[in-house]
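Side project, low priority. Logging it here so it doesn't get lost.
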Amino acid sequence: MEKDFWLERWKNEQIGFHENEANPFLAAYWHELHLQSDNKVFVPLCGKSVDMQWLRSQGHPVIGVELSEKAAQDFFKENGYSATVAKDNKFVCYKANDIEVKCGDFFELSKADLSSVKAVYDRASMVALPLEMRQRYVQHMAKILPSKTQILLITFDYPPAEMQGPPFALSPANVEALYRGCAEIRQLAETDVLQQNPRFKSKGLTRLHESVFLLTLN
């Protein structure tokens, strides 16, 4: 997707993908990572996700990356934080309460930016990317994250002909093909969630499955 597409959606408050409560799959499966409470977690394409606040409530320092400064500003304001703001040549960084959001291009992140990360929470990042961008995304993740980093990945799968994303359909076979060779892959759950998502049903979807994966990078 073009950067301007997402910036325009945030500007116009077209953020139907935003959830007002912590994702239930995050709460249900986060323990599968067996992390220490002070382990740092990376949240790619984080928006103003309240999941970052949930992760912080578990003790984790959080680092997110997000194109839209408005999303970062809204996150800290809506959670009652007064964020410090710092700029470098790649990102505008907002930080408070050990949560940092780097505003800029995900593909500008380097190993140095994520050197202390132990885990990744990916609910809205992979599914936001069309097919032609996914391989580049996975390759960059594998390049910049430390060895053995764990990724809790949540995906949607539906008949692609029935709806144009985002969110884009991402099947278990797609996940296997993308991460094969650079990560160990475990599927933790697959749930039919069509009835709980009337906005997708109204678009004509006949099937909507949400899956949870635990990936461990080589």
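Brief comment: The helical segments are 3-11, 24-29, 51-57, 69-78, 131-144, 172-179, 198-201.
Revisit when time allows.
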